């Protein structure tokens, strides 16, 4: 008797969620923001439906093409006479992906228009999942602009300005020069994306950006970003890497400034400071302050950092020029060392020789 009642209840629930029309089951779906009235298939994510064109999906994605080639069950759900496919992706991710998929002339491929991080992240993740190369490639192109391999590309005027204001986590990139409007906190998710999709060349710049985030916000899960319905926080291994990097950058910046200050007064014949505070005396004052203040982790900023408190340099023209040149050389060396931290180990042959060397 109980089994019969359960079976009757199940049938009632099915009737409540789907109506029989002409022998076909029509399920109730909330219309999403992307809906073509003449579409012929409905993709559903988180209860929201997106009515699109099966032919376009099949043409641009081998994954969809293979999916649609499978025979459909006789009792498959329909909506307005169209097959319904339930997706595991978030509704927002699916909206971004379908918007890019159905319009290659849209903002998603406009090189002069910024996209949000959530949009580009969805393009990378779903473009990879459904093997739509153009969408995936466009996402990677934008990420490479924000996290490049060359220091001169990374530390542009926009980057310098916004990374120097790291106390405001809403600021990182917001310029058409890079194509993504990023917050500093998004850089944690960039590291996870780089790990997941073999984009290791993004890691040095992404880790440097993460090192500018206050330690509390790096460590506590509550500061993790929610992307695609999931919380993105650094893995335990990457968190340790980032914390170690913060310490290394702080020490390196201190050393770089101290080294560039040591050039002051090396050539007395060039020094033209004859005022009450000659260059050597001023240098010693700055070195004294340097040993007692926290100067942060911005070891890749250009020599404008030498103008900031507590280290404003006010040497003569010759000594200032020498100091700035020495600092720029140290900054370039810091970038090289940072990249080496993430380079894969070189493969050695049995004889111990580099296999790429003849």
From TrEMBL:
Chain intervals for the UniProt region annotation (Disordered): 1-22, 338-358
InterPro entries attached to this UniProt entry: BTB/POZ_dom, SKP1/BTB/POZ_sf
Residue ranges annotated for the BTB domain, each copy included: 39-69
Protein name (database record): BTB domain-containing protein
Organism: Steccherinum ochraceum
Lineage per the UniProt record: Eukaryota, Fungi, Dikarya, Basidiomycota, Agaricomycotina
